[in-house]
C-alpha cells in the first residue's frame, strides 16, 4: 500500500560542518551476517515492552483535532528519526498507525491518509529499508536523509514523532577531549570514564546542546497537540563497575583492545589517542533536566524500562557482532579496514575472559522511555 519516495530536507546550515562526521554514523548495510539487520536483537527487545505504553499515550494524549486543523486533505504524518534499515522500525510504525486509526474510528472522524517519513543520515542503507517495507502497511513511505538535529520537515506538518536508539549519538566529539593542552584531554580512552570529571562534563555539555537542537527542530515541524516518543539508551545513577557493566564500560573494553594492539605495534598510539566515540549515555535525571528546559514540549511520560533484549547477547560472539554492526564504519575510517577482524577477535576473547561481561544479568544499561507533547502556541 502507498507510495515510496525520497523527499528533500531542510538542513540547518549551522550543522553542515558536521556532515563528514555524520556520514560515518550509518550502521552496517545489507542483511549479511555482519549487518545491522542481523545484529540488532538487543534494540528490538525493548519494542515489545514499549508498545503498550505508546498505544496508551496515543489513545489518551494525542490531540486528534490537530490532525484535521488547517489540514483539508486529512493527512496524518509520522516520522522515525534514526530508522537505520527499518528492521526494528517497521513494527513500531505499524503500531502507531493502527493506534491512531483506532482513536479516529472511535471519534467518528474520517480516517486520514498516513504518511511515514523514514529519517537517517545520508549514507544510511535506504535500499535495504525500502526493499523490506511490509506489504500490509497502512502508510505511504518517504525517505528523509539528513541529520535530525536540524530541520528536516515542513513547518507544522508532523503529528507523531518517534526515535529509538539514536539520541545517544553526538553531532561531534567535544573539542576539549581531543585537545592535548586541555584538562579534559581523553588520552588513551575512546569514551568518557566516570572517574575523569572534566571529560564526563564535556560529553554531557555536548549531549545537552544536541538534544536541545533536536527539540527545537521538532518544535517547528510538529503541530500543536502532537506527540513524540523516544527510547533513549542510558545508564542508572549508580552501578558497580567491578561486578556490573553498562554501555560505556562495554565500549571502553573495546578501547582497551585498541591500546593492546598499539602496544603490539599493530596501531600507532597517537592514532588511538585521537579516536573518541561520539556517544553519550544519559541518566534519567540528566535527560529530564534537559527536557524541562524546553518551552515547546511538556513531558507526558518518562520512565525507565528494563530491556529483555540483553538476553539475546548471551554469547561473547553475539555481543561483539552487536558492537561491530554499529561501529565498524567509524573504526574503518579512522584505523583502516585491515585491523577490524583482529580487533573484534581480541574483543571477543576479552569478553569471554571477563566474569562480568559473560552474564547478561550484570548488564545494568537502561532504556529511558519519554513521551512529549507539543504545546499549542
TrEMBL record:
Keyword flag Magnesium: yes
InterPro entries attached to this UniProt entry: MeTrfase_7, MeTrfase_capping, SAM-dependent_MTases_sf
Keywords of the record: Magnesium, Metal-binding, Methyltransferase, Transferase
Classification via PANTHER family: S-ADENOSYL-L-METHIONINE:CARBOXYL METHYLTRANSFERASE FAMILY PROTEIN
Family statement drawn from the similarity comment of this UniProt entry: Belongs to the methyltransferase superfamily. Type-7 methyltransferase family.
Designated name of the protein: S-adenosylmethionine-dependent methyltransferase
Amino acid at each position: 500500500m502507498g507510495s515510496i519516495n525520497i523527499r528533500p530536507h531542510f538542513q540547518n546550515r549551522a550543522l553542515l560542518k558536521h556532515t563528514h562526521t555524520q556520514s560515518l554514523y550509518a550502521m552496517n548495510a545489507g542483511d549479511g551476517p555482519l549487518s545491522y539487520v542481523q545484529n540488532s536483537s538487543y534494540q528490538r527487545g525493548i519494542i515489545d515492552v514499549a508498545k503498550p505504553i505508546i498505544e496508551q499515550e496515543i489513545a489518551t494524549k494525542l490531540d486528534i483535532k490537530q490532525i484535521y486543523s488547517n489540514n483539508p486533505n486529512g493527512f496524518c504524518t509520522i516520522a522515525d528519526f534514526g530508522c537505520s534499515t527499518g528492521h526494528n522500525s517497521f513494527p513500531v510504525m505499524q503500531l502507531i498507525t493502527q493506534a491512531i486509526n483506532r482513536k479516529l474510528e472511535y471519534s467518528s472522524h474520517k480516517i486520514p491518509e498516513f504518511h511515514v517519513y523514514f529519517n537517517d543520515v545520508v549514507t544510511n542503507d535506504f535500499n535495504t529499508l525500502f526493499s523490506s517495507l511490509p506489504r500490509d502497511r497502512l502508510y505511504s513511505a518517504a525517505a528523509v536523509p539528513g541529520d535530525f538535529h536540524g530541520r528536516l520537515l515542513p513547518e507544522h506538518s508532523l503529528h507523531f514523532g518517534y526515535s529509538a536508539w539514536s539520541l545517544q549519538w553526538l553531532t561531534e566529539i567535544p573539542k576539549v577531549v581531543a585537545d592535548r593542552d586541555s584538562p579534559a584531554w581523553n588520552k588513551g580512552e575512546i569514551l568518557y570514564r566516570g572517574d575523569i570529571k572534566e571529560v564526563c562534563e564535556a560529553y554531557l555539555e555536548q549531549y545537552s546542546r544536541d538534544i536541545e537542537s533536536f527539540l527545537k527542530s521538532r518544535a517547528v515541524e510538529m503541530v500543536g497537540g502532537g506527540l513524540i516518543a523516544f527510547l533513549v539508551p542510558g545508564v542508572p545513577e549508580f552501578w558497580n563497575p567491578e561486578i556490573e557493566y553498562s554501555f560505556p564500560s562495554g565500549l571502553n573494553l573495546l578501547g582497551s583492545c585498541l591500546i593492546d594492539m598499539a602496544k603490539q605495534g599493530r596501531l600507532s598510539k597517537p592514532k588511538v589517542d585521537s579516536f573518541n566515540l561520539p556517544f553519550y549515555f544519559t541518566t534519567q535525571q540528566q535527560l529530564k533536566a534537559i527536557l524541562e528546559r524546553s518551552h515547546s514540549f511538556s513531558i507526558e511520560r518518562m520512565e525507565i524500562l528494563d530491556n529483555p533484549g540483553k538476553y539475546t547477547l548471551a554469547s561473547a560472539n553475539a555481543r561483539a557482532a552487536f558492537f561491530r554492526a554499529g561501529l565498524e564504519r567509524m573504526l574503518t575510517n579512522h584505523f583502516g579496514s585491515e585491523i577490524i577482524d583482529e580487533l573484534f577477535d581480541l574483543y571477543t576473547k576479552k569478553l569471554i575472559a571477563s566474569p562480568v561481561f559473560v552474564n547478561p544479568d550484570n548488564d545494568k544499561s537502561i532504556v529511558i522511555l519519554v513521551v512529549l507533547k507539543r504545546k499549542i502556541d
